[in-house]
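Example record for the data management plan.
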Amino acid sequence: MEIDEIEEWLRERLPGVAERHGVPGVAVAVDAGGRLVEAAAGLLSTATGVEATVDSVFQIGSITKTLTATLVMGLVAEGLVELDAPVARYLPGFREATVRQLLCHTSGIEGDVFTDTGKGDDCLERYVEMLADVPQLFEPGEMFSYSNAGYCVLGRIVEVVRGEPFDRCMRNHLFTPLGMTHAASDPYEAILHRAAVGHLGGRPVPVWAMVRSNAPAGSMLAMTPRDLLAFARAHLTDEGLRAMREPQVALPDIDWGTAWGLGWTLHDLPGGPVFGHDGNTVGQSAVLRVDPARDVCVAVFTNGGDRKPLMKEILGRVVGSPAEPVPDPAVRPDAGRCAGVYVSSTSETTVSADEQGRLWLEHVPLGVAVELGDEPYRTELLGWRGDSLLPAEPGHKPVAFLGDDGEGRARYLHTGRADVRAAGRSGA
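Corresponding structural encoding:
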């Protein structure tokens, strides 16, 4: 679809699409060859009735990681950080892992650690010290497992090498040089703009942001889609940043993409390679996709409701979407390998077989996952591709059973994060 058609579609159809999916507020920006179109619809908060505009700021969640990675790559370009150097070179005493492994989520550090270490400028320092007691899921470099904690460590590296707080590094080295005038590092800056409020269950959430110690991973940063595309365009025009979208590790077959770069998710779509990232906070969600061959970027921000089909519809019109996974009757799940209980800090998942030999997954969110709006569910697992199975209940992506526990059973249930089999607990 040409940019003029996209602009017309957004102007005429966006309000209706948002209403159809129960999304309180949405903002979209599309950049094609340097020409920007943007649109917004709905409300920033159903409690106040304030309308969403193109100047409204929404939280971008984990898309923040691409900005954190860009700050790290700036240090690499200046010769201040080496990608394959041990993290301990910059943070003495830190466990075995390299900067590159943190960037591409292969460090093995338990990822979902959201401990609140305060609101002061020392919060990242204290957070990294606390990670000494956090489990190592696997040997560094062994596999991919999405890690919020790893990106907080990268944020700490940035502020140690730069000698100033992470938020100030973000503003001085990204926001100001790129002209990102509506970017807010925390609630104190966001309140200066029209700020979206997250919604869960159709109601505004009681908190605006998560803890500051997770800021480099995506707990606070808010901006307009326009500002995010200013950042994305820098990745299309700055040859020094091209290395960030070179594949570093192949992803498990879970419909997340094909590989991970140095901060970016890499997708092979029917129209060609696309890179980007997704983000979620408490009641807010965002997606960013960049098609380098067509010189197109698109950002979609929402503050609640059934945002996935809305985002898919918009992305499909601009950069295309991957085909939906469908079950393969020829692939039969291996109950003996898959059944068991798999745990992480944010979930407990039980996989069990019934008398007919069908495989069932029961997922219970824990901790911060509950705050983010995750709900328990039970679904049958259907054959899809090899060790990757497809939940029968709509709205859930494939899961992969990886590794071996020494007894012919999967060691990990992989959903983007590698949840570890709990010893001594069966799925019966």
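Summary line stored alongside the record: The first helix runs from residue 3 to 20.
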